[in-house]
Amino acid sequence: MRLEYVKNYSIGINQSGNSVMVEMEYLPECSKNRYKLRNGVIKKQVRDWMDSLSWIIRALVNSADLKFSPPVKVRIDGVFKDKRATPDLHNLIIPIADAIEDAIEIDDRLYETETGLPQVGEDVKVIVTVSSGGER
Q1: Would residue 65 be called left, alpha or beta, if left means φ above 0 and alpha means ψ between -120 and 50 degrees?
Q2: For the segment 74-118, what is each residue's pLDDT rounded down to a tens digit?
Q3: Rounded CA gap, 84 and 22, in Å?
Q4: 17: which strand partners?
């Protein structure tokens, strides 16, 4: 597992629910159109990226003793070098949801997913926010 993919993270605990935010290195291969080999196996680099995301979310959830309950809200935002390099953020949902499912052990069919508008900037990254209205 390469934690170099993780750029930043935070935990939010408030009355409206719990949240975990992780900033990850953007990996174009994580697109649902490119993350698997022809035989259906997830590419090693993508698996490492997903494992890093899963591991950091699990560590944050456990360290703050957070509890998530369905529906889990997953928001994906991103910052990219220019408009031409901007991916369709919806294409990142499947690998990200699978990584989150490994971390919090709630079936990804019970997620409400949302993507933000991609931003342009020098610090290229994908921002994943997981939140729930469930009790702590």
Answers
A1: left
A2: 999 999 999 888 899 999 999 999 999 999 999 999 999 999 999
A3: 24
A4: 14
3-state secondary structure of 126: strand
Tell me, rounded to whole angstroms, the distance of Cα 40 from its chain centroid: 21
Q: Token digits for 79?
A: 């910052």
Nearest CA to 90 out of 107, 120, 119, 113 is that of 113
Going by C-alpha positions, the residue among 54, 58, 78, 50 that lies closest to residue 11 is 58
Task: Give CA–CA dist 134/33, Å, rounded.
Answer: 33
- Give the largest CA-CA distance in the chain: 46
